[in-house]
Amino acid sequence: MIHSMTGYGKAIAELPNKKITIEIKSLNSKQFDLFTRIPTIYREKEIAMRNALSRQLERGKVDLAVNVEIIHKNVSSKIDHEVLIQYHQELKKLSDEMSVPEPQDWLSTLMRLPDVMRQEAEELSDEEWNAIESAIHEAINSVKAFRRQEGEMLANVLTEKIQNIRDLLAAVEPFEGERLEKIKNRIYEGLKSLKEMDYDKNRFEHEMIYYIEKLDINEEKVRLSHHLNYFLETLNDENSQGKKLGFIAQEIGREINTLGSKSNQSEMQRIVVQMKDELEQIKEQILNVL
Q1: Which ranges of the chain have pLDDT less than 50?
Q2: Same domain, residue pair 35 and 48
C-alpha cells in the first residue's frame, strides 16, 4: 500500500529539570529536504538526527523542531573572582591618582562591570541525548502512521480515477464502427462528386484499407488497458512507488493522446478530454505519494 509524504508527529522527553518537545512535519518533495530548528546545545547531534530521519522517512520536505521548557533552572553563571579583584585594584589605584572618593558600595559598582559574571557552557549529557533520541524515534513512528493513513485515502482516490478512465475507455467502443463508416461514406461521396474523374477501384480499396488501419485504435486501447492494470498493481506494492506511478501515468497519457489524435469523431474527442481530466487529477495526487 502506498504512503503519503504528508505527515505529522510529536513526542515529549521528560527530564528532572526540563521538558523537551519534538515535532516533525513532512510535505511532498522530490527528494529528502530537512529543515531544523534546534537549540545550540543539540547542534553536535544534528547529523545523527538527520540520518535517523532520512533513513526512516526517505523522501519529503521535513521540518524538525526541538523546543525546551526549563522546569528547574540550575545556576550556570558564576562570578569571576580574578576579574573582580583586578577591577577593584585598578579602580582603587585610579581613585588615589585622581583624588576621587572611592565608592561606598564597591560590590554594586564592580558587579555592573563587563565580564565579572562568567557564563558556564552547558554540556549535553548522555542521559539527555538518550531521552531526545527516543523521543525523535517516537515522533518518526507517529509521522509514518500518519503517512500510512493518508496513503490509504490517496490509494482510494487514485483507484477511483483509474476506474473512471477504464469506464470512459469502454464508452469509446460504440462510436468506433460508426466513426469508420462515416469516414468511408465521406470519401465515397467526395469521389462521386468528381464525375469526370476516373480512378482505379482496386488501388482505391488498397488505399482505403491502409487509411482505415491508420485510424484503428485497438492497439492503443489494449496498451491503455494494460497500463491501467499495471498502475493498480504498483499501487498495492509495499515499497515506495511514487516515482514509478508517475512514469506509468506518463504512459497512460501517451495512449490517451494517441486516441485523441486518431478519433476524428466529436463524441470520442469529448470522451478523450474527460480521460485527460481524470489523468491530470491522478498526476496531482501522485506528487504526494512517497
Answers
A1: none
A2: yes
